[in-house]
Structure formats: C-alpha cells, structure tokens
Amino acid sequence: MEKQQVQSVNVKGFSPKANILFSVLMWIVAISCIFPFLFVIIISFTSEQSLTTQGYQIIPSQWSLDGYRYLFEMKDQILQALFITVFVTIVGTIVNVAFTSTYAYALSRDSLPFKKFFTVFVLISMLFSAGMVPNYIVMTSLLGLKDNILALILPMALSSFNIIVMRTFYRRSVPDSIIEAAKIDGAGDLRTFIQIVLPLSIPGLATISLFAALGYWNDWFNALLYIQSDNLVPLQYLLMKIQANIDFIIKNAATSAQLGSVTIPKEATRMAMVVLSTAPIAATYPFFQKYFVGGLTIGGVKE
C-alpha cells in the first residue's frame, strides 16, 4: 500500500494536497489578471455622478451609458480610425512575420555565408537604437513617407527580438535531416522553406504574429510623428486626442458659461476608450492559445 502511494506521488509529481494548493494559487493569479479588465468595464458603465460622489465601486449605485454615448457622437471618426488600425495591424503583421521568419531561417542554417556578421548585426540593432531624429529624417526626407500609411507599417516591419526567437525555434523544431532529405528529393531552398519548414513552425509563427499584432495595434507614436491627415489617424492616437480634448474642455469650462453647463463623462469615457482599444485584440488571444502551448512544449525531449 505504501509503495503504491509513493509511486502515485512520484508519477503525478505532487501529492493531492499540493495539487489542490497549486490549483487554488493558479485561480488566484488568474482572477488577479482578469479582475482589472472587468473592473474597467464596470467603470465604463458607471455614471459620472456616481464616480464623482462615491468613487470607483465594484457594484456602482447608478449605471450609465454616457461614456459610450459620448464616443458614439464621434462614430465616424472612430470607425475610420478603427479601419486604419485593423488594416495596419493585418498588413504590418504579415510583413513583419514574412521578414522575420525568412531572416531567422537563414540565421538558423549553418551553411549561411557570413552568418556571424548577420547575427551580430541583429544583436546590435536590438540593443542599440539610432534614435528618433535619424528615424524621422529617413522616413520623411529619404523615403518621403510623411503623412503616408506606410509610415505606420515600415518602422516596425522587422523585429530583432522576434528574429532571435524564431532562430531558436527553427533550430529546435526543424531538424537538419528533414531539410537535407528535401534537397535530395530536388526541392530548392524556397520550396523547402514554404512546404516543409513553415508547416512545422506554426507555433513559433503564431507567437511572433501576436507580438507583432500587439505592437501595431497599440502603436500611436508613429502616428504622432508622421501622420497629419485625419483620414490616416489610427484608433489609439485618436483616443488619445479625444482624451486630451476632454481634459482641455474641462479645464477651460470655467471660462465659458456655455461649456460650464455641459457635463462630460470624463472617467466613464476614459474607461470606455480602454474597452474599445483592448477588447478586439483580447478577443483574438484564445485563438492563439493552443499555438502558445505548442511553442512551449515543442522543445521538450521526445523518446
């Protein structure tokens, strides 16, 4: 009986009590991660008067849609900015993954000439940046992309960190024997990469795709530098401008009798903007979850 119990503990790794303890801890961690976003959603549906008098509450005394109504008045601008953000995110992610995956695959092969040089080049560019001024001069003067949608895509079209991640992934998940077998069968480098390497690298590609998509979705700084047309403003930058306009109106409301009579749901609108900017990208995460699990376990030892 004791041997069976010891064997059960060794197979599972932990005793039943330890498993229950770790399960409770994981639930606490999960709730602590989910609760802030749920709290933001609750605040976005709270009336401004309740927030002013009673502060933030889990169950507010008065519910309201004033924050969303205020944003709905600017629905044309928000929808246009949302379209720009979605377009930039999709196209930028495709470009980023295409450049990153091909560069990383070349670095993962020992037959690459000057492999050390290109590896050091990536590492240096990851650790050191030329700065904002050279980037601005290149984008505006050299490439002429001022007030162009490409200015929102090209600055993040290549990620040094993602290159290192994918290079390691290729070396662990794509054996040299498979590539050599493909070459023996007459496949070229491009065909080998597309038909053999990429299908084996879906977990890694999904991981860097999510990294790239998050970067493009949350980017507002490039729009601040390069975009002047209202038709090319992305969602994050537009929401920042709306927040700045609300702060400006509230600060100067005392100087105008007309503005003094207008009540703007500042906090509710701010939280509504957080929901609008976060919910779409958060909704896509479950579709990538299984690939993250595959990416974490693919380096395990197989017997």
From TrEMBL:
<dbReference type="GO" id="GO:0005886">
    <property type="term" value="C:plasma membrane"/>
</dbReference>
<keyword id="KW-1003">Cell membrane</keyword>
<dbReference type="GO" id="GO:0055085">
    <property type="term" value="P:transmembrane transport"/>
</dbReference>
<feature type="transmembrane region" description="Helical">
    <location>
        <begin position="190"/>
        <end position="217"/>
    </location>
</feature>
<feature type="transmembrane region" description="Helical">
    <location>
        <begin position="117"/>
        <end position="137"/>
    </location>
</feature>
<dbReference type="InterPro" id="IPR000515">
    <property type="entry name" value="MetI-like"/>
</dbReference>
<comment type="similarity">
    <text>Belongs to the binding-protein-dependent transport system permease family.</text>
</comment>
<dbReference type="InterPro" id="IPR035906">
    <property type="entry name" value="MetI-like_sf"/>
</dbReference>
<feature type="transmembrane region" description="Helical">
    <location>
        <begin position="78"/>
        <end position="105"/>
    </location>
</feature>
<dbReference type="Pfam" id="PF00528">
    <property type="entry name" value="BPD_transp_1"/>
</dbReference>
<feature type="transmembrane region" description="Helical">
    <location>
        <begin position="149"/>
        <end position="170"/>
    </location>
</feature>
<protein>
    <submittedName>
        <fullName>ABC transporter permease</fullName>
    </submittedName>
</protein>
<keyword id="KW-0813">Transport</keyword>
<keyword id="KW-1133">Transmembrane helix</keyword>
<feature type="transmembrane region" description="Helical">
    <location>
        <begin position="20"/>
        <end position="45"/>
    </location>
</feature>
<keyword id="KW-0472">Membrane</keyword>
<feature type="domain" description="ABC transmembrane type-1">
    <location>
        <begin position="82"/>
        <end position="282"/>
    </location>
</feature>
<keyword id="KW-0812">Transmembrane</keyword>
